[in-house]
Amino acid sequence: MNNLLDGHIAAPALALLIALSLPAAAGAATPLMSPGVEVVPHDDSIFGPDPDYGEHVYDAEAQKAIYGGKRAVPTPRPLLELGRPQYQAGPLTAGRDWFGERNLAFPALSVYGDWRTAVADNDNGDRKLGQVATRLNLDVDLKLTATERVHMFLRPLDRNNEFTRYEFSGDTGEDDGEFLLDGNLETLFFEGDLGAIVTGATGKPTDWDMPFAVGLMPLLFQNGVWLEDAFTGFAITRPAQNSPTLDISNYDVTFFAGFDEVSSLAIRDENGEVADEDVNVYGIASFIETRGGYAEIDYAFVDGRDRFDEFDYHNFSVGYTRRIADHLSTSLRAVFTFGQDTETSERTAGGVLWLWENSLITSKPSTLVPYFNLFAGFNRPQSVARDNGGILKNTGINFETDGLTGFPLLDDSGHDTWGGAIGVEYLFNLDQQLVVELATVQLMDDDDPTGPARGDQYALGIRYQRPLTNAWIFRFDAMKGWRDNDEDISGVRLEIRRKF
Question: Which residue would you say has higher pLDDT here, 272 or 51?
């Protein structure tokens, strides 16, 4: 105690001890607290002594090792960061009350994305091509508050799915190259939370959230199977609801509409290209957590305008995902397309696709993942809208091109076909990925195919990728496809990606 009372801290320390030992004075001011909160009397019995390690000295490094020796992982920084940086330690700068004291502004501008360059030798059956191609993805993000931002996405080195490239081999026998610049915006939208905006404007707290987005915005539902597109419109969500009566712990409902750049594979112009004008879409999508899994129930109406009026169609989809015991993670989806009012021979949308996706849970559930995905498509099922691949894009790596070199793939339309993919993904020590897959597409009617496949198709695909640094990624793909009544296909490619 003598040491405690020595020097300049003696008086404050003594005053603190005296204050703690005395009961509160009669009529003392009540602390400012929220409604419904009250002071709880102090009870010494609920506190225990600090842990006693005996002769062992506390070792902070040993304590971190309990959690796998986790440490901060270096990450690439954006090309440009102005204002408050993202994912950084404090202290943080104070917010500004531009939008109200209860919805403070933390302005920040960042530019990030990736730069992909690949060399490939592809044989798509009707065309052989060796090339080096490059693609730049730029995201420009203007953060305003904790919930509001303006976002823009550009791809300046490609135009109309043609990429800046140099072709060094092919059917023409001539070397050729093309440098493309494109200033068109892929997305430009504002998103925020209406509840937070109202709170800031009125100064009164709200007890509801309502996220929304408006502009040229990307939307993705059911893992991209039902919808994966960017169009001009709006979306608004009622999130975090529940229903004890229906055993629903959480559900979200999203309403959306698109009025331009809606890309439906069922509506094409006179040149056979997907029409992105005179097509609207209106829909509702729901995500429901219930009975140990989650369901997705979605409906949309694709509205062809003027010259495309006869190609209107409805699209209803339902999916359910859950884990079965400790052995299988499974998703079952059905996409129903109906209501197109045109001649049967000219119908581009109408039918149903069943998709069953499965991954086995092994003794190494985070790194060793065998999977098998099965599908059956009747007539001409369609997604609501998509600007990237077909409805079977996520069924396996043999149904997905690379979005850069035109890497070959199996028929991904799901039109009067059935089949699937079986493969295994291994992530080593979470520092690299290897995928090996066998896939097939089988015709429902060999004599009358309705999709791109002229006969049954089979493929073997391999993918390997690993980070070279915290910013550079190497990827290798190879596939061989065998197609009845058509030319076989094959491809091999090497890619380097720089993330920033």
Answer: 272
